[in-house]
Specification:
46% of the residues lie in helices and 9% in strands. With 403 residues, it is mostly helical. It folds into three domains: 160 residues, Arc Repressor Mutant, subunit A (Orthogonal Bundle), CATH 1.10.10; 172 residues, no CATH class; 31 residues, no CATH class. The strands form four sheets. Strands 1-2-3 form a three-stranded antiparallel sheet. Strands 4-5 form a two-stranded antiparallel sheet. It has a two-stranded antiparallel sheet with strand order 6-7. α4 crosses α5 and α12 packs across α14. The protein is elongated and about 75 Å long. The N terminus and C terminus are likely disordered.
């Protein structure tokens, strides 16, 4: 409700009633309006903090069962009007605030908005929350999102970030027809790969096809896989990829993967521009592609799109551009090799050996010792008698549930 001063502010600025308002507002009026808006924000934050406390109690009491709802998420959707994603986030933040008293108090006082606290709870722990709150002071939600991106629970605001851990969200508004085509495209790629594919893989494949001017499998066999602008600093080895006029840092293994099969333009800061040269001679690359039938060589992989050529013996270790040292890999498996998750060696017989990082044959089930360790881990997660309340909540927030 407006008091008399508030009503005068509303009328003079044209908020109450038709006909516009005055171009010049008295200093006391706009200052009063500013105080009122800030007060609304503080009260909203306090309500968000109160709601978080209530949600924790609702979880403990299983409030949704009192009304015949299947889950608390359904209760929040039907009673409080939250969508599924927003309801899930509200529950996550409410659970996190139970072990972050300083952050919860800051929300109650209105020092930080709920949207800011929501991002901070992704990385805060009790021993780091003060540092994060201090770092977030005076920053917008967008700036806080950038601070949190790529960091893990327990990290500090200044902790170095691995570009591989930074995820970016795209929100697309498409028609029903486009949505159906998207689902058909995903299904086609899954049939080709023989396994489920992520949104990242689907979108990457579509974008690369467009940039190449056609389907990835129809690209000239002698043409290098990496035709995008990837810049590698000669001193620190940091790699950036140009996208839409911006330099975006990429992981080190992406740069190593590019060195296998790329066109190098040389030093772009030199007075004279050097001739662009492919890392693999086109005639040799074309022969490797033809020998491997335009397919990834990893056992069981059926990918035949955007094939890249990999050096079994790295060039840094003396590997050469020879047919017996080059094989075709899809982008996913090539990335796994340079990230250390997949190992490819050549046996004395000349056959290729594909193994996991722990030495298992590729595709083989975990060893008995490893399987027993995983079972023990899941059993430990299921046994909470010796855990404190804070540890339980932290596991609920930051760990994947056992299968």
């Amino acid at each position: 409700m407006f008091d008399r001063d508030d009503e005068r502010v509303a009328v003079e600025t044209g908020f109450a009633g038709a006909g516009g308002g005055h171009d010049v507002v008295e200093s006391s009026s706009w200052r009063q309006l500013d105080r009122q808006l800030r007060g609304v924000a503080r009260r909203r934050a306090a309500l968000d903090a109160e709601e978080a406390r209530c949600l924790v109690l609702a979880q403990q009491l299983e409030l949704h069962r009192r009304f015949g709802y299947a889950t608390l998420l359904e209760y929040l959707e039907r009673t409080l009007g939250y969508g599924p994603r927003a309801a899930r986030e509200r529950l996550r933040v409410a659970t996190a605030l139970q072990v972050l008293p300083v952050t919860a108090a800051a929300l109650t006082r209105g020092d930080h908005a709920y949207s800011a606290v929501r991002e901070l709870t992704r990385v805060c722990r009790r021993d780091t929350e003060r540092a994060w709150l201090d770092a977030a002071a005076g920053k917008t939600v967008h700036e806080i999102e950038a601070m949190v991106a790529g960091r893990k629970p327990g990290d500090l605001p200044g902790t170095p970030v691995d570009p591989q851990d930074v995820r970016r969200t795209l929100s697309l508004d498409v028609s029903a027809e486009t949505f159906a085509i998207w689902r058909d495209t995903r299904l086609a790629l899954e049939l080709e790969h023989g396994a489920p594919v992520s949104d990242d893989e689907v979108l990457r494949t579509l974008c690369l096809d467009r940039l190449a001017g056609g389907a990835g499998r129809d690209r000239a066999p002698g043409r290098a896989a990496y035709q995008l602008a990837l810049t590698i600093c000669p001193s620190c080895e940091r790699a950036t990829q140009t996208g839409g006029g911006r330099a975006i840092e990429v992981p080190a293994h992406t740069a190593a993967r590019a060195r296998c099969d790329a066109k190098v333009v040389g030093n772009v800061d030199a007075p004279a521009v050097a001739k662009a040269t492919p890392t693999i001679p086109p005639r040799i690359r074309a022969a490797v592609i033809a020998r491997d039938h335009h397919r990834c060589r990893v056992p069981g992989c059926r990918s035949s799109r955007w094939i890249e050529v990999h050096h079994v013996q790295p060039r840094a270790q003396g590997g050469r551009h020879t047919l017996d040292n080059l094989i075709c890999l899809c982008g996913g498996h090539h990335d796994a090799v340079h990230a250390g998750r997949l190992q490819i060696t050549r046996a004395p017989s000349g056959d290729l050996a594909f193994t996991h990082a722990d030495g298992r044959r590729y595709g083989a089930p975990p060893t008995t010792t490893r399987a027993r360790a995983e079972v023990a881990t899941h059993a430990d997660r299921a046994t909470h008698a010796d855990l404190s309340r804070e540890q339980l909540v932290q596991r609920a927030i930051h760990e994947e549930p056992p299968p």
